[in-house]
């Protein structure tokens, strides 16, 4: 499977490149960097700190190399991801996108694209996070509004969006399990006199240092509580999951896919 990685020097792009280079079922054909970066024109293996040449270029024009790939993996910025999406649709290429922070209108463009290309969107490509999502759905269906649900998510100081895309996805799963929409029941932080409303989902975002990613969902009942938590030690699990998602799309037709499909959850 021929793969293009967007942002090969970025936090996720670098790791995805490293993982893809190890796999026998993948062939890296290009890395695409933002225009003007000093490493454009260099070998992808050196740019992604693999420590050896791959014989693969880093370019700053996706359109120039897109026809040589089967799938694009993009964990870049919100603005750039929308440009990548448009090119993927135009050239009929499968796309794995793990970028977060889109508005509802922007996210709708990904679902529209799925009518013509294999489109896999994943706010979080970790296997264990997606298993956690299944547990959250089960607990919420069992408890309903008998539990007060609160989400605490922690990330590094450089994360731009809050709450995290992963925690939003968790909230949507639990809201749907209660037959509701997250937008109707989400409460973001509290200050002053702010009594809890039954049936809501509370959000709390912490940003500090180089904390990788941590999500805890609290189910509070009278006299007891349940906590379900996922911690990452580094971003390797997301990179491996992203490559698994790309491999999953190899023989797929147009459609909107998820990590749950990849894991058969």
Biggest sheet descriptor = 7 strands, parallel
**What's the CATH first level of the largest domain?**
Alpha Beta
> What are the low-pLDDT stretches, counting only 5+ consecutive residues below 50?
none
Give the DSSP E fraction (strand runs of 2 or more residues). Answer: 15-25%
Strand order of the largest sheet: 3-2-1-4-5-6-12
For the secondary structure, the number of strands is 12
- Output mean pLDDT: 95
Number of helices: 10
Domain Dihydrodipicolinate reductase N-terminal: 1-124
Protein name: 4-hydroxy-tetrahydrodipicolinate reductase
Enzyme class: oxidoreductase
Subcellular location: Cytoplasm
Helix and strand topology:
Elements (H helix, E strand, L loop, with lengths): L1 E5 L4 H12 L4 E6 L11 H4 L10 E2 L2 H4 L5 E4 L3 H14 L2 E4 L6 H10 L4 E4 L5 H17 L4 E8 L9 H13 L4 H4 E3 L12 E7 L5 E9 L2 E9 L3 H13 L6 E3 L1 H5 L2
Parallel strand pairs: 1-2, 1-4, 2-3, 4-5, 5-6, 6-12, 7-9, 8-9
Antiparallel strand pairs: 7-10, 10-11
